[in-house]
Amino acid sequence: MGTKSQRMIALAAFFFLGLLAIFPPGCLSDANQPFLMNKMSTHPMGSSRFGSSVVFPVQGNVYPIGYYSVNVNIGHPPKQFDLDIDTGSDLTWVQCDAPCTGCTKPRDRLYKPSNNVVYCGDPSCAAMHSLGKPHCKNPKEQCDYEVTYADQGSSIGVLVKDDFPLQFTNGSAIAPSLAFGCGYNQKYNGPHSPPSTAGVLGLGNGKANIVSQLHDKGLTRDVVGHCLSGRGGGFLFFGDDLVPSSGIVWTPISRNSAENHYSSGPAELLFGGKSTGVKGLLVVFDSGSSYTYFNSQAYQAVVNLIKKELTGKPLKDAADDKSLSICWKGKKPFKSVGDVKNFFKPIVVSFTNAKNVQLHLPPEAYLIVTKYGNVCLGILNGAEVGLGNLNIIGDISLQDKMVIYDNEKQQIGWTPANCDRLPNVDRDYNEGFSQPSAANYGFSAAIYAS
Asked: What is the spatial distance between Cα 425 and Cα 209, in angstroms, rounded to a whole number?
């Protein structure tokens, strides 16, 4: 919500507001019901359950755009929506013509619901609520939602179901019916303008996310991964076809949080290979945050150590650059982090729940160069934005790594990777699939199945 350069983890709270979010009578029809070309009683992927993956090209960057997004087709006939990639929340929603308040897209780019509202008795409604029970007096009421993010932006709407045409890595083209939010009341707070995307692709660690729904239908493994390029772009994938068989560092997902976050810990913070004395950190991996946020203790330790390290170096405070909280300028403008990285030391998040599990953050993973040619610290103080003791690993620190969220094995993994090239499964992973990855969203062969 808001420009993602200042958007943090979605501390999502779902409230089902039956009396506050009623669609206008007569706005629904049969025109948008899932179209079945072939209603199958068995899993449409054939005899092998969980046999394939879906790959999406990614657009965007940390700076200056402030977010990464993918294009997703929804409906029959399909309509394309650009969605923010957010592993910090698990509700997917799109701006909705019902009508819409606070929508940023023109009306012809909004999603039009058509007699496809999800009702409170549907399991999809229960999956959205953290306790598994929707707040509805009557199971025949529509399933309303409200999601609020850490920057106090929000979306209010109703849960709907529609077709998501997808091209799988084994060549199958299928359009399963999936539940998502139709957001007709959006609010954007903070100093930045609203995002240009049509909504949010929620991929958090919960049953409401799109990948969990695909898994429940037997279409793919409950695994999400992304590879975000530091030069912009990258790719996102559902399923485990692209997960390397070796070379990945894994840490277990903590289950001590009521929210559906990809969290792990405890972790210790190292700077320049030495301990900072900061330990016991709870770390959340969140592609919905452009920058990394440390709690007050960890943030202050890093800032003090960096400033000490810069003593005597040809860098001065750039207080007039408001791009981020702390910026420095050189004798002449910098063109890239490569021009200045030798003045900074690497940071390491060392997870103490497993041996040799470390997330390495070289200067490229915590610095940006602004349009003014200054270098700024992409680690921010989480206490200043209400994150309390949480520590958020955002996009800036996830770049040029393949990051995997395995919801089946409840673990998070990462490995250095070239994120500039959309992978070809046959070429790169030698799995013998008949077609390359799903960069082509064709519909002529799609099977529409509920």
From this structure: 24
Tokens of 320: 């007039």
| CA–CA dist 92, 104 (Å, integer) | 17
Following DSSP, what letter does each residue of 400-416 receive, concatenated? TEEEEEETTTTEEEEEE
pTM of the predicted model as reported, rounded to 2 decimal places: 0.85
Q: What angle do CA 426, 427, 431 make, to 5 degrees?
A: 35
* Most trustworthy range by pLDDT among 16-25, 37-46, 182-191: 182-191
Classified as helix, coil or strand, 125 is helix
Can you read off the two tokens belonging to residue 64?
A: 């200056």
Q: Which two tokens stand for residue 56?
A: 């999406």
**β-bridge mates for residue 420, sequence order:** none
Dump pLDDT digits (tens) for 259-293.
678 999 899 999 999 999 999 999 999 999 999 99
* Amino acid letter, residue 402: M
The CATH architecture annotation of domain 249-413 reads Beta Barrel (2.40)
Dist. CA 414–CA 209, nearest whole Å = 21
Which residues are within 8 A (CB) of 205 and not within 5 positions of it... i.e. 6 or more apart?
90, 253, 260, 261, 262, 405, 407
- Cβ atoms of 384 and 345 within 8 Å: the answer is no
| C-beta separation of 203 from 85 below 8 A | yes
Indicate the helix (H) or strand (E) that contains 179: strand 173-187
Of the listed ranges 134-148, 174-188, 410-424, the one predicted with least confidence = 134-148
Identify the CA nearest to 93 among candidates 197, 181, 33.
181
Tell whether the model's pLDDT for residue 153 goes beyond 50.
Answer: yes
Distance between alpha carbon 86 and the CA centroid of its chain, in Å? 2
Q: pLDDT tens, 1-32? A: 434 444 444 443 333 333 333 333 333 333 33
Are the folds of 4-242+421-449 and 249-413 the same?
yes
What are the residue numbers of the active site? 86, 286
Domain boundaries, the chain: 4-242+421-449, 249-413
pLDDT over 50 (residue 48): no
Topology of domain 4-242+421-449, per CATH? Cathepsin D, subunit A; domain 1 (2.40.70)
Q: How many residues does the chain have?
A: 450
